[in-house]
């Protein structure tokens, strides 16, 4: 293999490696975003449930005192 062909082959391998690494990073970023979105949604749901439970408990106490 001539020096130029060897150099071109190494450049192609480097580009393929870089492409693969970039794809891995992008996939991880997507998974992180999905995980964060899921956890934030669950947090909001739990906060809402906690507020509702507190509200209903307080209303039940108010009804008992009447």
Write the topology of this structure.
Layout: H1 3-64
Main sheet makeup: none
Spans of at least 5 consecutive residues with low confidence: none
Element order: H for helix, E for strand = H
| SSE class | mainly alpha
How many β-strands, per DSSP? Answer: 0
Termini Cα gap: 96 Å
Estimate the helix proportion, in percent.
over 70%
Strand content: under 5%
> Total helix count?
1
Spatial extent as radius of gyration? 29 Å
Which geometry do the CA atoms define? Answer: rod-shaped
Tell me, rounded to a whole number, the average pLDDT.
90
List keywords for this structure.
single chain, mainly alpha, 66 residues, 94% helix
Q: Would you give an account of this structure?
A:
This protein has 66 residues and is mainly α. The chain contains 1 helix and no strands. The model has no long low-confidence stretch (mean pLDDT 90).
Brief sketch in words of this structure:
The chain is mostly helical. Helices cover 94% and strands 0% of the residues.
